[in-house]
Amino acid sequence: MAIFMKRSIVIEAPAKVNLTLDVKGKRSDGYHELETVMHQVNLLDIIEIAKAAGGIQIKSNSSLIPTNEENLAYQAADMILEKHARHAHIEGVDIFIEKNIPIAAGLAGGSSDAAAVIQGINKLYELGLEEGEMLELAVAIGSDVAFCLAGGSHLARGRGEILSRMPDQFLPFIILVKPDFQLSTAEVYRELDLTQVEESPDNSAFLAAWEDYDIINIARNMGNVLETVCLRKFPEIAAIKAELREMGALNALMSGSGPSVMGIFTEEEQASKARAQFCTRYQEVFLLSSYVKEGYSKGISP
Ligand code: C5P
Were both Cys, which of 33, 137, 266, 274 would link to 247 (CB 3.0–4.6 Å)? Predict the structure, then answer.
């Protein structure tokens, strides 16, 4: 019987949205102490990882992302090769990133690609890394990578890497509008003045509503203190939020450090109308749902 060794693997890398984001304070290491609800949605980058003779090569359908060590997916591959190359006989990897998640948009696209690379190389080269080992690599790459690795819905604390799993709940109609500009996470945090924050999300109330799948109170308790920085500087974000609400969203919120805005709908017709309306002015508008993982990976080719 012929034994086929896997040569490549394809993994889905979903975007995340922050349904709440509270900043508890600034830490001595420069990071901010967070309490945030992160939730994966079905806006996917597709990552194909293939065994290669040597080195790390990244290609993408998008010319907007770096293909060198600035790319978080490259960093993930580099760390694994560094740590595990010798005993696992890893030579190199070719990575293709089909980019669908808007970049620098508060959706953790780069972090999700990195998480997919960690999972993918682990599987492809049969490294047998435990969850804890993968988490350690994730945290070294970026604050959101741990969540992207864990997936689903989590309350994240610390830099964003201390995760408490929340029940799986399905949000059927999320309209995501990405304004035609990008925001740097580091800059948004740098400009955050905690004394200017007037309203913080009530995470306990949010979690109670989430537990009960009480969609009205889920929506009511959404909140993001980083809006204090971004709405003042970019009134367009506030305008998108208002328009989403006018169009029937139960609530609308900026995700992460922005500038993407999501609206939570319960009626498909309203959500579709909102998408059509925003599509006339914005290039990146999506009608999404919660991400449901169908299996570990989408496909393995011999
Ligand atoms: O961890 P990551 O590299 O994704 O973070 C990007 C930047 O965002 C950090 O360098 C930091 O300035 C800011 N940040 C923060 N507090 C966090 C997460 C990120 O201040 N919890």
Answer: 274
**How do strand 223-224 and strand 55-60 relate by DSSP bridges?**
unpaired
Report the alpha-carbon distance of residue 178 to residue 198 in Å, rounded: 25
**Lowest mean pLDDT across 3-12, 144-153, 200-209:** 3-12
**What is the per-residue pLDDT for 300?**
39
Q: Among the options 16, 99, 123, 178, which is catalytic? A: 16
Is-catalytic flag, 51?
no
Residues 141 and 187 in one domain: no
Question: Could you tell me if 14 and 110 lie in one domain?
Answer: yes
Pocket test for ligand 1, best of 31, 69, 113, 139 (most atoms within 8 A of CB): 31
How far is residue 221's CA from residue 19's CA, in Å, rounded to a whole number? Answer: 9
Mean pLDDT of 84-111: 90
Query: What's the CA-to-centroid distance between 102 and ligand 1, angstroms?
Result: 19
Confidence of residue 299 (pLDDT cuts 50, 70, 90): very low
Within a domain: 300: no
CATH of the domain at 178: 3.30.70.890
Distance from the CA of 90 to the center of ligand 1, in angstroms? Answer: 31
| In a shared domain, residues 92 and 222 | no
Measured from CB, residues less than 6 Å from any atom of ligand 1 are 31-32, 34, 142-144, 159-160, 185-186, 189
Give domain status of residue 297, yes or no: no
Compute, in degrees rounded to 10, the torsion defined by CA atoms 247, 253, 258, 260.
-30
Give, for 16, the enclosing helix (H) or strand (E): strand 8-26
Q: Which residue has the higher pLDDT, 293 or 155?
A: 155
Give residue 33 CA to ligand 1 midpoint distance, Å: 10
User: Is 16 an annotated catalytic residue?
Assistant: yes
Q: What is the pLDDT of residue 90?
A: 74
pTM above 0.85, yes or no: yes
Q: Which domain holds residue 22?
A: 8-166
CB 62 within 8 A of CB 187: no
Q: Identify whether residues 123 and 208 lie together within a single domain.
A: no
| Choice from 21, 24, 32 to test ligand 1 binding pocket (greatest atom count within 8 A of CB) | 32
